[in-house]
Sequence to fold (171 residues):
Amino acid sequence: MNHDVTRERQEEWPSLQRLDILASMVAPSGMWYYTGNKDDVEPDFYDYDGWNVHNPLHEWRTSPSPEEFDPLAIDLAAAVRRMPRLRSCGFTIVLEADSGHQHNIDLQCVEAGEKLETNANNEYMPVRLWRVANTNTNWKMPEEFNAICADWVGPDGEVEMCQEGRLLELP
Fold:
């Protein structure tokens, strides 16, 4: 997938200032945004196909799927570039499994002078920022996503990734 600006859909949201999305693990197409290995957990009463239709909480789905989630994240980052008045954007997928573990991913961007939702210190950001925060997931940020985010934040901004609250080095 190439997100060259000449190939992107050119919709703009010229007045949008805040965008918050709480998404399901299941895409509108019926595909899963998360994946994993079925053998990583013990099968139990809730993990059979009939229950899955109504309550999709397979505990083995613990990481964003590169095939399904990566294009969604890239499209979100590309769309943010077409929101000239945007102050903050948050996109979250939360899975709270029966075991009590959460497998979350938060994609957030803020304009300088705004508060970041996942900022424990509740302080205003001094620069434009894109942050990816993972909790009990293992998402490898695609280079294309990182490049689009870096373009939006500009030379003075930051793109960062946090895992379990710790800031990670980006390649």
